[in-house]
Amino acid sequence: MNKIRFTQPSLYRVAQSYPSPVISCIHKAPHDAEVSRFASPTISLVDEATSSDLKDVHISTQLLDGFLDLAKGNTSKDLETCGVLGAFLKEGTYYVTTLIIPKQDSTSNSCQAVHEEEIFAIQNEQSLIPIGWIHTHPSQSCFMSSVDLHTQYSYQMMVPEAVAIVMAPTDTSRSYGFFRLSDPDGMNILRECKETGFHTHREPDNGTSIYEDCSSIYLNSNLRLEICDLRQ
């Protein structure tokens, strides 16, 4: 007799949901002021021709504060916290509807997700696209370290629009940033780099930067956000 095997359904805790679990994923904005384009406080080195080929990414205005709130325990201990952004694609635009906080190992300058199969289970369950990641620099400035660049490379290889969000609550000049590797220059440098840990990268020969501010990010106050905290 063949044995019937039952698989355990994946369980996770929804820590926060904006604006409400019963409201559909996205709502049309009643006026333009509720959807704003992210404007970098620094001069952007983005190649406009390349940027124009990227799809727009809408992120809930609640995501940054919601993530910082869940990270504050680590931040107070000078430990990094990381999360994964899940999105769906609708009519040529990515909408970030889910923030997954995985189980993780953290230090003051690094953060590594563990039990990544739990992340993949939620992404598969909800048909989410891994559109990027977010992490804190609890006592450092807002920038991308060499390790961050390698992490971003793995996301950008999957989805060209992938974004790295850095939250630096102690940086008085810039508390957060939306970054991506320059393409093709930064992507080529990371593709050729075989080093691990913290190290230096050469800058592109044409004088551009290895990474840059995202120019296709929109903060959307009408976008539902669900935060799944797997650390519980």
How does this model look, in words?
With 232 residues, this protein is an alpha/beta fold. It contains 5 helices and 13 strands. It has helices at 48-51, 63-76, 116-125, 146-158, 185-192, and strands at residues 13-18, 35-37, 56-60, 82-90, 93-101, 104-106, 111-113, 129-136, 163-167, 176-181, 211-213, 217-220, 225-229. The strands form 2 sheets. Strands 1, 2, 3, 4, 5, 8, 9, 10, 11, 12 and 13 form an 11-stranded mixed β-sheet that branches. Strands 6-7 form a two-stranded antiparallel sheet. It starts with 12 loop residues before the first strand and ends with a strand. Residues 1-12, 20-33 and 41-51 have low confidence and may be disordered.
Properties at a glance:
Cytidine Deaminase, domain 2, 232 residues, single chain, eleven-stranded mixed β-sheet, 5 helices, alpha/beta, globular, disordered N terminus, two-stranded antiparallel ribbon
Radius of gyration, whole Å: 18 Å
Q: Please, how many helices? A: 5
Q: Ends: how far apart? A: 40 Å
The CATH architecture would be 3-Layer(aba) Sandwich
Number of strands: 13
- The assembly state of the depicted protein chains is single chain
Mean pLDDT: 83
Major pleated sheet: 11 strands, mixed
Number of domains: 1
Which range does the strand content fall in? 25-35%
The gross shape turns out to be: globular
Order of helices and strands: EEHEHEEEEHEHEEHEEE
Contiguous low-pLDDT stretches (5 residues minimum) are 1-12, 20-33, 41-51
Q: Return the CATH topology.
A: Cytidine Deaminase, domain 2
Summary, kept brief:
The protein has 232 residues and is of the alpha/beta class.
